[in-house]
Write a structure and sequence with these properties.
There is one protein chain. The protein is of the alpha+beta class and about 450 residues long. The protein has eleven helices and 30 strands. The protein has three domains: about 260 residues, Spore Coat Polysaccharide Biosynthesis Protein SpsA, Chain A (Alpha-Beta Complex), CATH 3.90.550.10; about 55 residues, no CATH class; about 110 residues, Sandwich (Jelly Rolls), CATH 2.60.120.10. Helix 3 packs across helix 6 and helix 3 runs antiparallel to helix 7. The longest helix has 16 residues. The two termini are about 45 Å apart. The mean pLDDT is about 90. This is Sugar phosphate nucleotidyltransferase. InterPro entries: Man6P_isomerase-2_C, Mannose-6P_isomerase_type2, NTP_transferase_dom, Nucleotide-diphossugar_trans, RmlC-like_jellyroll, RmlC_Cupin_sf.
Length: about 450
């Protein structure tokens, strides 16, 4: 069996900590068994490794999240990159063509797709492993996992099985109901309906043949070229609900979608993360503070205060899911991002004239990590080192750097930086356009960079 983790999301539901490059699955707000903080994607990857599935697992994600995946999972995690975000059907179709035409996976092999961020017990992934046998033995087009509901939720979709039992391990699906009212949800639960947790399993040939029927390319490189023409639609609507034979495997363990501040704060280990204070009469209140400034809450209960370089949120917990709608049309550049080499925080952005922009960042290059060897056509940079030691390659010249050094990077100069220890510096960009598209990457590994410079 091959496993595909879908890592998408626009970063709106857990604003201001989440943004387009750091969606909810990358927030390090959960505590692992060793008392260390980890993100949802790191938690899921650890659980997959525990059931010995990591060698068969791929992560499907967009370009904006690529560095974050490498930063948190390492560069060994196999990645399938979406050219742009287009919902789950295009993403799964792209993953299927990658497995078929690039990896060479057999058409008879079962592929299981699941979100990268479910909050579940380890045994959930044992149920995922069972889907392979269920799909093969049942002859189903699609196999699903359905969670036995613990209350009549109006937030989840429901899988309604047929009344007769087909097997001890699975049921044939009658139909689906999307986010019903609570009264309807109670009736569905009486019919043994299950929460839809977004897990799909199928033989690879089922989806490849479906793509052929729809006139969609089954060669990965060709589908990448045509990707923007694919309809934006979910895999549920385009495939699952139209399939002739769908079965569901019930799961009666713990499962939760930590997609909003009210659900996430139920699982974090402390009421205060970062610099903050909450008075004794403020009950069920959480502070998640990424800023250096202190945050104090007095006399307010059932609220969440979240701060980051992107903004500040103060919300009643029950109302916190509305942040997605409020931020829907807000389009600002992320002020904090994690990259494979470390992180950066935007300190200031100014427009001094029609073609004169200034952007100031604080950047940290992790010990033993490096940026790419790159150049820019539309900006120059000034680096002021404030902590640590490292080495810089500037136009093929190797230069040691340390706290207190100042380096000028003229426009079109080739440059890369590596941390010997954790290395921090202030970068001031000046130019007509300060955009990611003005990064021309020449080499990625430090060995290649040094070989080119020698």
């Amino acid at each position: 069996m091959k496993l595909v983790l879908l890592s998408g999301g626009s970063g709106k539901r857990l604003w201001p900590l989440s943004n387009d490059s750091r969606s909810k699955q990358f927030l390090k707000v959960l505590e692992n068994e060793d008392g260390e903080m980890e993100s949802m994607v790191q938690r899921v990857w650890r659980q997959i490794r525990n059931v010995e599935l990591s060698d068969s697992t791929y992560v499907a994600t967009g370009k904006a999240q690529l560095d974050m995946i490498y930063s948190q999972l390492g560069t060994d995690a196999p990645i399938i990159v979406e050219p742009e975000r287009r919902d789950t059907f295009p993403a799964i179709a792209l993953a299927a063509t990658y497995l078929y035409s690039i990896v060479g996976v057999s058409l008879h092999e079962v592929v299981t797709v699941l979100p990268v961020d479910p909050y579940v017990e380890n045994r959930f992934f044992n149920k995922v492993k069972e889907l392979e046998h269920i799909v093969v033995s049942s002859g189903a087009d699609i196999g699903l996992i359905g969670v036995k509901p613990t209350y009549p939720s109006a937030k989840y979709g429901y899988i309604v099985p047929e009344q007769e039992t087909n097997s001890d391990s699975y049921r044939k699906v009658s139909h689906f109901t999307e986010k019903p009212h609570e009264d309807q949800a109670r009736l569905l639960i009486e019919r043994d309906a299950l929460w839809n947790c977004g897990v799909f399993a199928f033989k690879l040939d089922y989806l490849i043949n479906l793509l052929i029927e729809k006139g969609i390319p089954i060669q990965y490189e060709e589908l990448v070229k045509q990707y923007e023409s694919l309809v934006k639609i979910s895999f549920d609507y385009e495939v699952v609900e139209k399939a002739n034979h769908v079965v569901v495997a019930p799961y009666d363990g713990y499962w939760k979608d930590l997609g909003t501040w009210n659900t996430l704060t139920e699982e974090v280990s402390s009421h205060i993360m970062g610099n903050g204070m909450i008075c004794a009469d403020s009950r069920n209140t959480h502070i998640v503070n990424e800023l250096d400034l202190p945050v104090t809450v007095i006399g307010l209960s059932n609220i969440v205060v979240a701060t980051s370089p992107d903004g500040i949120l103060v919300a009643d917990k029950a109302s916190s899911p509305r942040i997605k709608d409020m931020m829907r049309d807000v389009d600002t550049r992320p002020m904090y991002e994690e990259r494979r080499w470390g992180w950066y925080k935007v300190l200031d952005y100014s427009k001094l004239g029609e073609n004169q922009h200034v952007l100031t960042k604080r950047i940290c290059i992790g010990a033993g990590k490096n940026s790419s060897y790159q150049l820019h056509h539309k900006r120059s940079e000034t680096w002021t080192f404030i902590a640590g030691e490292g080495e810089l390659v500037l136009n093929e010249k190797l230069i040691p750097v340390k706290a207190g050094d100042v380096i000028q990077i003229p426009m079109r100069s080739r440059h890369a930086i590596r941390g010997i220890t954790d290395l921090e510096f202030i970068e001031v960009q000046t130019g007509s356009e300060l955009i990611e598209e003005d990064i021309i990457r020449l080499y990625m590994s430090w060995e290649e960079i040094l070989a080119f410079s020698s």
